[in-house]
Amino acid sequence: MRFFGKPKPAGEIDFNRLPRHIALIMDGNGRWAKRRGLPRTAGHAVGAENFRKIATHCKNLGIEYLTVYAFSTENWKRPAGEIETIMGLLERYLKEAISQMERDRVKMKVFGDTSVLSAELQALIAKTEEISQRFEGVQVNICLNYGGRDEILRAVKRYAEDYANSMAPELTEESFGRYLYSADIPDPDLVIRPSGELRLSNFLLWQSAYSEFYVSDTLWPDFTTQELDQAIIAFQQRDRRYGGV
């Protein structure tokens, strides 16, 4: 991975070399609100609206997969009121998505342990994934109660359970990948992190092994479609050798 603080790449997007899969760490909602003297929950509300804009822009550009970090396994440590707000925003988004996703040709999948979520959220997630089976289109993956280490541990346990009473075949990266939440989805080409933090924060640890990384000092609620374009242009200017020469 290469880390860039505030790159200003020149040029325009080459639509023949788009990343197939973009992953986004939607970071900075709380700090955005604090700088304005607002409660952290206000930052999450604005951040949720920005997600809609960015997701729509990705669809219009022709990005095939967009994966966003909505709520991590560590986020349960936050104040109860903040968690309630985030879950409420997710619930509202899923309800709206159900009425529009088939029309807009947007598929949805959730990565993470949904068993601890409310019954209503679980039902909405199941409904969006059922609708997604009906058509082909851009796919939005929402990481909800997700952690990269937790995902890998769960995959190991599932593999062990499958072969508890039989001889396991040789384990390869490809066969192990089928036990991850992202099974059958290409790894992200580009991981974008607004807010200036230079870490993955337990996000897509397996999948991002050879992702290009773009870091912006802009907080998520202020992250614009123009800055997304700049991230794609920066990606297109990099030489991806995957360990080769």
List the strand order in the largest sheet. 3-4-2-1-5-6
- SS class: alpha/beta
Mean pLDDT: 93
N/C terminus separation: 16 Å
Rough outline = globular
Strand content: 5-15%
**Major β-sheet, in short?**
6 strands, parallel
* Spans of at least 5 consecutive residues with low confidence: 1-7
User: What would you report as the Rg, rounded to the nearest angstrom?
Assistant: 18 Å
Count of helical stretches: 7
The proportion of residues forming helix, as a percent range, comes to 40-55%
Instruction: State the total count of DSSP E strands.
Output: 6
H/E element string? Answer: EHHEHEHEHHEEH
What would the keywords be for this entry?
about 40% helix, 7 helices, disordered N terminus, 6 strands, 6-stranded parallel sheet, alpha/beta, about 240 residues, single chain, about 15% strand
